[in-house]
Amino acid sequence: MLDQPVADDIDLVTEYCQDPVFERFMTLPWPYRRGDAEFFVTEFVPHGWRSDLEYTWAVRIDGGFAGVIGYRVPTRSVGFWLGAPHRGRGTMPEALTAVADWAFQRGERELRWECVLGNRASLAAARKAGFRYTGQRPAEIPMRDGSRPEAWHGVLLRDDDRTEKDGWP
Fold it and tell me: Start and end of every N-acetyltransferase domain (predicted)?
């Protein structure tokens, strides 16, 4: 299930974002503090929805908070993460498919995805959701220090079938 993150999710956002994987692969502040989660849930997410610039959903499993998935309007790109206890169950490809369907219903013709080189979990989710691998190049979204590390990139077109494509690293 996807819905907006709420105040009751702040403790789990804080907890999950302590994972060292986030330091290496994510653009989130590091170290990640409760204040960062409060800002994310109470200011960043609502502003994104109001401004029509970025839509962020909580990913819920059996009603509990498991992670987030977002869609950035200006870049037509998706980003996502799951807390460690929820990884490896096929949840994120399902959530990614739901967000893709939503974006295409809005009139988008393509969705873009990228992840820092080595983030195989993100790569697997994009591949399973039917994205096509488009290559390795510097990241479009800068890291917290402003750098643009090498990243894997993919695209999903509105008319693409959603089967896994060959050619992924």
Answer: 8-158
Rounded distance, CA 79 to CA 143, Å? Answer: 13
For 27-55, the pLDDT digits (tens) are 999 999 999 999 999 999 999 999 999 99
Alpha-carbon gap, residue 39 to 126, rounded angstroms: 28
- Beta partners for residue 136, in sequence order: 152
Q: What is the DSSP letter of 166?
A: S
Domains of the chain, each with CATH number or no CATH: 2-157 (3.40.630.30)
Residue 59, CA distances (Å) to 13, 50, 82 in order:
11, 20, 8
Apex 113 CA angle, 135 and 32, nearest 5:
120
How many residues appear in the chain?
169
pTM comes to 0.94
- In what order do the strands lie in the sheet containing 64-72? 2-3, 54-61, 64-72, 77-82, 110-116, 150-157, 132-138
* pLDDT on residue 158: 97
Q: What is the 3-state secondary structure (H, E, C) of 81-114?
A: EECHHHCCCCHHHHHHHHHHHHHHHCCCCEEEEE
